[in-house]
Amino acid sequence: MSTLDDNQLRELLPRLRRFALSLTQDHANADDLVQATLEKALSSWQQRHTDGDLRAWLFSILYRRFIDSRRRSKRYARLLELFTGDSPTSPSAEDIAVAHSALDAFEQLPAEQRALLMLVSVEGLSYREISDTLNIPMGTVMSRISRARKAMRALGEGEYHVAPRQDSRRTPPTLRRLK
Amino acid sequence: MNTRHPTEYDLHAYLDDQLDAEQRQWVEAYLAANPQAATQLDGWRQDAQRLRATFANPQQWPSNSALDPARIRQRQRHRQHTRFATAAAMVMVLGTGLTSGWQAHDMMTADPVPPMQDALQAYRLFTDNTSTATTLDTNAAAGTARATPAEVSREQITQLFQTHFNDGVMPPDLSAAGLQIADARLLVTEQGPSAMVLYHDQHGRQMMMYIRPPGANHHRLEPGKRIDGQLLAQYWSRDDYNYAIVSQPNDPNAAILKSMLRNS
Question: What transmembrane ranges does the database entry give (chain B) (predicted)?
């Protein structure tokens, strides 16, 4: 395959948006991430050495860009903290209380664990593909899946319900626990 | 048949369909005999199903035209053009900056005194005040060595130039053009010795050749000329020295001298 087919990309767009949303937890940011991913994919298509699954390749670009941007914002936050003396990332006690009531178990997992669960449970990637996509060894894939599932169980006890998502692109997916 | 019990990782691999048929049977047998493990696995399975339900049908999400590959390609091309234009502008700005910086550097390092002002002063001193020069010359402290007009000989000039302006251009013999050397003097500048050689013709016109070391910071002269009062100074740098010809502006002899000095 010499050129990257636009139709192929269009077909994968929904999956990319979904994976991005699970990471950023915000529709607008997710679409920004997908856009950056497609730009990178289009410009580095010629340099792509592996003939593997296009979807896995795109997921790996997306995940790398997400990690990079998060690293940058963390650096920025640290810098800000240095100048202002307080940390903009540490939530207040009130924020934490709100988070517990509004966010579901999945959303409270670390991004690394969310990425893993998405790829294995939703996208159905093999452990080998996940290892390549997230650039972590197979053993780590398995241990992280185990940790992520236990954490999700402990946090949510599996009792949540899916809210309709057609309303606004900017609201994160709302998953409410039903007791 | 595998005799060991499946590990927790094996259970996850079973759930995620990563096992072959034989391994599946092995895990299923274990689950049948271990209800606690089966319950645990069911919990994970439910979580996975709910996760799939939560993120089901992303193709039904409101579309975002900004993500269309054709649009992104178009934007990339546009950005590339913009980048090229920016790069071109940067080159221009850099060029302008360098030029003005260089000019500013020139202005800052340039002698605030106009070029070859000392040559003009020497001309005024030794032509207009020829009669008083004799008395000044006797003052050794003034740092001038002199050869009175009557005593100037070609040999003396040659010796003076060879001693103090090694590799400098010698004052030419212009007697064929009716010009005689009327005076030659060794003078002093901050950077070292300078010298003036005064020519005159039968009409009483006087012009002067002046040689000196470059100015401060070894500043070299762009070839040029300037009018100062009633005098014309033409100047340039060559090798280790700066040269000037000072004359009346309409003196045709200056062109001859200049040509001889610059082409020799």
Answer: 84-102
Question: Number of C-alpha atoms within 13 angstroms, CB side, residue B250?
Answer: 0
- Per-chain mean pLDDT for chain B: 84
Residues of B in contact with A33 (CB under 8 A): none
CATH number of B117-263: 3.30.200.100
Chain B residues inside the 8 Å CB shell of A178: none
Is the pLDDT confidence value at A18 over 60? Answer: yes
Q: Is B242 helix (H, G, I), strand (E, B) or coil?
A: strand
State the Cα–Cα distance between residues A131 and A141, nearest whole angstrom: 6
Asked whether the beta carbons of residue A121 and residue B60 sit closer than 8 angstroms, the reply is no
Query: Measured between alpha carbons, how far is B156 from B134 in angstroms, rounded to an integer?
Result: 18
- The alpha carbon of residue B116 is apart from the nearest alpha carbon of chain A, in Å, by 58
Mutate to test the interface with A, among B11, B52, B59, B61 (most CBs of A within 10 A): B61
The partner residues of A85 in beta bridges, in order of sequence, read none
Domains in chain A (CATH in brackets) are 8-90 (1.10.1740.10), 91-163 (1.10.10.10)
Judge: B51–A118 Cβ closer than 8 Å, yes or no. Answer: yes
pLDDT of B98 > 60? The answer is yes
Q: For B5-56, what is each residue's pLDDT tens digit?
A: 999 999 999 999 999 999 999 999 999 999 999 999 999 999 999 889 888 8
Q: Say if the Cβ atoms of A166 and B62 lie within 8 Å.
A: yes
pLDDT for A103 beyond 50: no
Q: In this complex, do B67 and A17 lie within 8 Å of one another by their Cβ atoms? A: yes
Task: Please give the DSSP secondary-structure letter assigned to residue B169.
Answer: P
Question: Using an 8 Å Cβ cutoff, are B221 and B242 in contact?
Answer: yes
| Cross-chain residue pair A158–B50, CB shorter than 8 Å | yes
Q: Which residue has the tokens 């290892």?
A: A131
